[in-house]
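Hello,

Our lab assistant flagged a job as stuck in the queue for most of the afternoon. It eventually completed. Since we weren't sure the result was trustworthy after the delay, we are filing this so someone can double-check. Below is the sequence as submitted and the structure that was eventually returned. Let us know if re-running is recommended.
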Amino acid sequence: MKGDMEQPVIKTLGALKAAGYKSRGVKQEIRENLIRSIREKQSPFRGILGYEDTVIPDVERALLSRHNILFLGLRGQAKTRMAREMVNLLDEWIPIIEGSEINDNPFAPISHFGRMMVEEKGDETPIAWLHRSERYGEKLATPDVSVADLIGDIDPIKAANLRLSFADERVIHYGIIPRSNRGVFVINELSDLQARIQVSLFNILQEGDIQIRGFKLRLPLDILFVFTANPEDYTNRGSIVTPLKDRIESQIITHYPKSTELSRAITEQEADVLDEQMQRVEVPELCRILVEQIAMEARRSEYVDHKSGVSARLTISAFENLVSTAERRALREGSTRTMVRIADFIGVIPAITGKIELVYEGEQEGAANVAYRLLGQSIRTLFTSYFPDPQTFKRNASGGKQKSNPYQPVIDWFGKGNELVLLQDADDQEYLQQLYSVYGLYNAVKQFYPQADDAQMALLMEFLLHGLSEFSLISKKGIDSGGYSFGDILGSMLNMNFDLDEEDEQDM
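-- returned structure --
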């Protein structure tokens, strides 16, 4: 668990014995290093957020029990990343017999090559050192994966070159699993693996050995197996055969971030945003939270397939697109600095549409329309965290005195037939002029945020307009050139009905 050390200088088996080196199985090695990590209150799972009290304790218990592990969860829940981080629990360096294809332990070689090397050279057997970064194997399960890929097969070319019969163990070409001996091996999307291929893993998990083409050989492989699977795949594409699942000792359920704060921390950690972009673009707190709220809304939307899940990659991609949208505007304006606007969220739509699976009703609506709905619902949800709920200003049904509505001057301004067009690519000066042209908008924000500077005030004014439209107090519609047009909600409805009547007349 300490920083990288230099490679040991021991070069022979005899020198290794003299140094008092003690060999351990990989699961025992991981167990002992984890014990040390827990005592020192250090987590080997770097950069994993939100699992501190749920998944990580389950993983630690499984590793202490020397179990193989199955991570079961929806996409984008850091299953593979958790598996990759287990490499941190391996020793920095381990000795292997030099030239061994399957990382033979010098004290207990299992391959024909390793056994012959020790038998012939004894204490002079050459030793190489394997870094823990090389002790990790990973395979994505796809329908075309074969037993030969995973375990191995007879290599006729090797047999011909060495002039050996197919009965000789030396003609075997080892697959990726034997080559991961004394390390961690991961199979992603296990349920996509054909059932007959899954069966080939039975002996490896239960007995620790492999069988290749009827060879009478026993290779007691020393591997920590980690599998990942999506529960939705059990019905859509395949399943994990019951005997195999029974042989995987610990099944650990993963989950999505449980709060927007946690989701935001993950996004900011993982988003690939350049320093030069952040120097040019300011992303206010409101917009950062709004990005995360989109994913939260998607996970409970009636249009989105909940079984498929909404990956954490949605918010990461959305944040990257949001910054780039504002950056593009600044570059076009020749500006050295700009701040993200609500209109810039038009740029995150492509990051949403590609990362949500829709149910039938969502397919009927269309992915882009669903994405805009999610954005609108996110604004509505967040609105009451920044401004009073507009619904509290509705006339008291019992005849009581109505509260003074801070939004009424804005609603009345649009009610007089006024319209506001906010183009996404408008420069900062035009953007401000347009917002300040709406009577009562500045005062509506100023009474709740008296300390806000000009840039913050502009963002809050725009957010207020979007919020009022989501509560159906004013109208909003998108513009083909990029941006929004705000107007009177009643006039918009009348115009819509008028357009429909015209269409009916044309049909007649």
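-- support follow-up --
The delay was a queue issue, not a problem with the job. The result is valid. The domain at 14-253 is CATH 3.40.50.300 (Rossmann fold). The first strand starts at residue 69 and ends at 72.
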